[in-house]
Design a protein that fits this description.
single chain; mainly alpha; two-stranded antiparallel sheet; globular; disordered N terminus
């Protein structure tokens, strides 16, 4: 019975990305009626779930923390492609889209995914246990890059408004790439053991103990299907984005809500994968996914939009407003207090979710 279920799941996750890609080809650059948008959204969700499955197959084969890194980078590629595409089509109206989406990704990952993972694991196992060395390293990088890329533009004086000058933007993009590259090297080579799941007694779990690794053929298929699924997600998300923007405008909501919705869509694979890891008491894997995604979002998106700004006609606004800077500061302080004890209770998870709720309320009603 279990074998049949696995075979059915395998077939479904192979067929869905291909069909989603076909739907993308048929709907590309077309004005879609409401029913067609609903159909596209269904295939978008299917492509996201397929991407999660194939990323987990690759993660099982490669082991931690490589698996988390694969999914984090893959999801960020989706985000970057979607942001640049929408900025190219949006003109001045999309000048804050990169800032809004990156900040939304940071808040959702560092408070939403992290908080939910800790809450689930702590409720099921009494406490959520993780490795403070790896989690603390990721937090230090996030705090640095978020400050350099999203806070400093508000206080610089070379350009009017919360914008970087060309020299400042070049520095921020270079620093983002360098810091992110150093983090990846630390995570995968020099101090890989800092990012592996641990038992409540502190023993490092270097290998998955519940199943044998997939074959090379299965990994190859998953690599191909992951690429197809991610292309489908990017294209289909772009297809439904005009509907999202119209709905936001018709509802009288701030345009920043578009960035929140985009971040929620592209981070859905991360959320599902992190929750699955938390249920298995692999909280460090959940934190690798959450904080790794936040770091990749800043470290890869800022350089990409810096390059794109050279040919985009509109301005690039990166500086946060005071309310969002307060939320960012609160998030970093809470993360620090959560990481230091090396274990967390449901209380810490709930507090992070409360901060996310505050962010969503301010996004809807600034």
């Amino acid at each position: 019975m279990i074998t049949k279920l696995r075979a059915s799941l395998s077939q479904w996750t192979v067929v869905t990305p291909v069909v989603s890609f076909v739907v993308l080809v048929l709907t590309w650059h077309k004005d879609l009626p409401g029913w067609a948008v609903a159909v596209v959204a269904c295939f978008l969700v299917g492509a996201v779930l397929s991407a999660v499955h194939h990323a987990e197959v690759i993660a099982h084969w490669s082991g931690e923390p490589y698996g988390s890194l694969v999914l984090a980078v893959a999801v960020t590629v989706i985000e970057v492609a979607l942001i640049v595409t929408l900025m190219a089509d949006g003109g001045d109206k999309s000048s804050t889209l990169a800032r809004d989406t990156v900040f939304a990704a940071v808040m959702i990952t560092c408070n939403g995914i992290l908080g939910l993972s800790i809450l689930v694991a702590a409720i099921k196992y009494r406490t959520a246990v993780f490795n403070a060395e790896g989690t603390g390293a990721a937090l230090a990088c996030i705090a640095t890059l978020a400050t350099l890329s999203l806070v400093l533009p508000t206080f610089t004086t070379s350009s009017p408004g919360p914008q970087f000058s060309t020299t400042q933007l070049t520095f921020a993009a270079t620093a983002s790439l360098v810091v992110y590259g150093l983090f990846v090297a630390t995570q995968t080579v020099r101090h890989r053991d800092y990012f592996l799941p641990v038992t409540p007694e502190g023993r490092v779990l270097d290998e998955e103990e519940h199943a044998s690794p997939p074959t090379l053929r299965a990994v190859g298929v998953s690599l191909l299907m992951l690429a197809v699924a991610l292309v489908a997600v990017v294209g289909l998300a772009k297809g439904v984005s005009p509907t999202i923007e119209t709905a936001v405008d018709n509802a009288g909501l701030p345009h920043a809500v578009v960035g929140v919705v985009i971040a929620m869509m592209v981070l859905l694979p991360e959320t599902i994968a992190a929750l699955r890891a938390a249920i298995r008491n692999r909280v460090q894997t959940s934190l690798n996914l959450a904080l790794g995604s936040a770091l990749a979002s800043i470290g890869l998106t800022i350089p990409a939009v810096a390059i794109a700004s050279s040919w985009l006609s509109g301005p690039l606004v990166l500086g946060l407003d005071p309310a969002h800077m307060v939320l960012l500061t609160l998030t970093i302080v809470l993360l620090t207090l959560t990481v230091i004890p090396r274990r967390a209770t449901p209380l810490q998870g709930a507090v992070h979710l409360a901060v996310l709720a505050g962010y969503v309320v301010l996004a809807l009603n600034p």
